[in-house]
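To whoever is on call:

I kicked off a structure prediction for a single chain this morning and the downstream step that reads the tokens threw a length-mismatch warning. I double-checked the sequence; it's 167 residues and nothing unusual in it as far as I can see. Pasting both halves so you can look.
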Amino acid sequence: MPTTLHTTDLPCPLWRRLLALVYDLLIVVAIVMVVGLLCQLATGGQLIHTGATTVIPTWYQALQGLVVAAYFISSWRRGGQTLGMRPWRIRVTRDDGGTPSRQQAVIRVLVAAAPLVLLMLEPMLGLHTTLWTVLIVWACWFAVGLFDPRRRALHDLAAHTEIRLMG
């Protein structure tokens, strides 16, 4: 029997969001590892070629992105929570408190992941500088929430969603 989730009208503090994100990072690492293993098995261990440079197929990178995006989108569409959000009793909602639509979930995940495009700068900037750049841009994405009365990050503003505390 499905449980009805009661969400308060209180916005989620930034620290709770970030801790839930750390939990979700562990889930994402597990997902990426399983997809990587399956792809290695399917290609007979010939998925990634190393030598003077490492070559990772574009289809593999796209597949990893799609699988991770599917995890977030399906979690937000079914109950508004990822596994990382559950222990912190927070939930993604539409502005009116309902479950986000498919379009809102897709917009949210695309905008949240947009800083990853900066990884393409790695050949020019080097790995260390590129990773710091991505981290700083993500910090700016969330810093928007420090000034928004509903504590919405940039991806929430773009998708018309917010993170609320559960009652």
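Update from on-call: the warning came from a stale cache, not from the record. Cleared it. Sanity check on the structure: The mean pLDDT is 91.
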